[in-house]
Amino acid sequence: MFIIAGLGNPTKEYEGTRHNVGFDVIDRLSEKYNIDVDTKKHRALIGKGMIAGRKVILVKPQTYMNLSGESIRSLVDYYKIDPEEELLVIYDDISLGTGQLRIRAKGSAGGHNGIKNIIAHLGSQVFPRIKIGVGEKPRGYDLADYVLGHFSKAEREQMEEGYGCALRAVEMIVSGETAEAMNEFNRKKREE
Predict the structure, then answer these.
(1) Closest by alpha carbon to 50, among 190, 182, 174?
(2) Which of 69-73, 137-141, 150-154, 176-180 shows the lowest mean pLDDT across its residues?
(3) How confident is the model at residue 182 (pLDDT cuts 50, 70, 90)?
(4) Is the pLDDT of residue 125 over 80?
(5) How far apart (Å, rounded) are the C-alpha atoms in residues 128 and 65?
(6) Mean pLDDT (whole number) for 119-134
C-alpha cells in the first residue's frame, strides 16, 4: 500500500494557484488511473486504486496547507504504513524553476509550512517527496500572495510539462525506483 499525498488548500478560491500544485498532480493521477478521489476520510479526500501494479491511496488533505500533517498522520496510522517506504508527498517549491522537479527520499521542510507540519506529526523527515517548482517569488512580493496567486499562460504551459514528469516520477517511485527517478528528474534543468 502506498499513500500518495498532494498538498494544497481546499475550496474553489485556491484552485489553480501555485500552492495547489500537489492537488493538481493528484487530479491528473486520478484521471490517468481512473481513481475517484471523492471519499471523505481522515480529514482528506481519498481514492483507492492501482498504479504500477501496487495498491495506492491518492490523498488531498482538506486541513489547509499548514495543517497537512494532521491528515497525513491519521492516514499513516490507520493504514499502518511505513512513511519511509510507503508515503509520497507532492508539493510546490519556490526555489525551483516553473515546472522543474526535485525528488528527495528525505529532508527538512525548507521553509514549507505544510511539510513542516507533516514532519512534526510524523516525528521524522524521512519520507519521499516530489517538489514541483512554481518559480521564484519576485522581489517585493509577499510570499503568501505569490504562492496563492495563479500562473500566467506561459507558466501554465511549463507546469503541464512538469505535471507530466511528476506522473512519471510517481510511477517510478511506486515501482521502487526512487533513485532512478532522482537521477532522471533532478538533473534536468530547463533551457531558458
Answers:
(1) 174
(2) 137-141
(3) very high
(4) yes
(5) 18
(6) 97
Kindly give the interhelix angle for 113-122 and 68-79, rounded to the nearest 10 degrees: 40
Asked whether the beta carbons of 96 and 112 are under 8 A apart, the reply is no
Identify residue 8 by its one-letter amino acid code.
Answer: G
**CB contact at 8 A, 112 and 125:** no
Sign, Cα dihedral of 58, 61, 65, 68: negative
Give bridge partners of residue 49 from the DSSP assignment: 56
Residue 12: Cβ within 10 Å count: 6
Matching residue, cell 510570499: 143
The predicted pLDDT at position 51 comes to 98
Is 19 labeled as catalytic in the residue annotation?
yes
Catalytic residue among 19, 42, 112, 121: 19
Helix/strand/coil for 66: helix
Q: What percent of the chain has pLDDT over 70?
A: 97
CA distances from 25 to 21, 32, 107, 124, 169 (A): 6, 10, 21, 24, 11
